[in-house]
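Retro notes
What went well: the complex prediction finally ran end to end.
Inputs used:
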Amino acid sequence: MIEIRRVLTQVEDIFHEFGPVAAQPLRRGAIVAVLRNPYAGRYEPEILPMMEALQPVGIRMAQQLLTAMAVPAARIEGYGKGAIIGSAGELEHGALWHVPGGYAMRELLGWKGGAAAYAQGRGGENTGQPGNALAIVPSTKKVGAPGAGLDVPLTHINAAYVRSHFDAMEVRVPGAPLADELALVLVMSAGPRVHARVGGLKAADIAKWDGQR
Amino acid sequence: MLSKIRKLIVQVDEIRIEMGKEVAPPVRKALAMAVIENPCAGRYVENLDELVAIGEELGGLLGERCVQALGIEPGQAQSYGKAAIVGEAGELEHAAAILHPKLGAPLRKAVGKGAALVPSSKKRGGLGTAIDVPLGHKDAAYVRSHFDAMEARVPDAPRANEIVVAIVVTDSGRPLPRIGGLQAGEVKGEDGLR
């Protein structure tokens, strides 16, 4: 069921945005897998088998992205995910990425729950242990033409309300997705926006460990 | 460092299947881009030596980043290309100063050899402007299987006083090449052409 045609990785270092040059540049990374959409061109009522099949794909992608970013997992502070569905598919096909994409990064970053709990929508449940990747993974998706850009949202991995880590990364693959393809995206960042200064909850002040604050 | 770099971006594009056929080994293209301040923006500057020196610095930096991202030895690089997008307060000649006089030597060092011309493109542009970086075999410009291009763009650059400098290095030609011409295996690699 899984036929990956193309993989694109992107890693960027942001040194400044016309303010003081950061002592350590903000590193952000994205990985996109372009694969065949087995449900393209028709209405298929039963699409859940694909969700299951995407689990190992997500885990490999998350690992490959971390490798490309060349930082230890402990330095990842933000994450997000997204999907672009080729024109012969429907938005719901992109929704298949919510569970495997989100679970993959949380697994990589130290979330202590299991894949089954995550698939049941209990991914954000705090089991009380000092965990990592407690926050929901923000996402976006759309049906798009080859080369379509997707602004993939990023939030803090442990508390969705940490204001310094609200960000987005524009991702696109020239020439993909074709009509019968899906472009599945994971993004991670190793820090806050480069000149973050609009107040709000700080990462250092996360206290509830409930995935939000 | 001479270049005032705001952003460095490295992409790797790996093509494993084309038109349903496996591409083995996969085609892999690495793109490295630097968003830099244009020291000559906003006025006419006669002597462009500062940009020439920046080009020399970026030829090495971006070339090495590409090779590193592909995880190959320099000698395994097969094709290359370069391009620049000048923000609107700069002129096309600024791109030429970066790309043409001195960028090539350190790039060639990064890819092991490089007898052939480094194909290039340049334009003026705004935020998110895309440029297609032309690609050719690094040792023989006539290798037909390696004529290709890779699209480069930075969503928030170039600002008016910036330049986006892009270098692409590959370890392969096009996926499924089959239009004949000089083959990579037949290259002499002496005159840069064949």
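What we learned: Helices of chain B lie at 49-70, 92-99, 104-110.
What to try next: split runs per interface for comparison.
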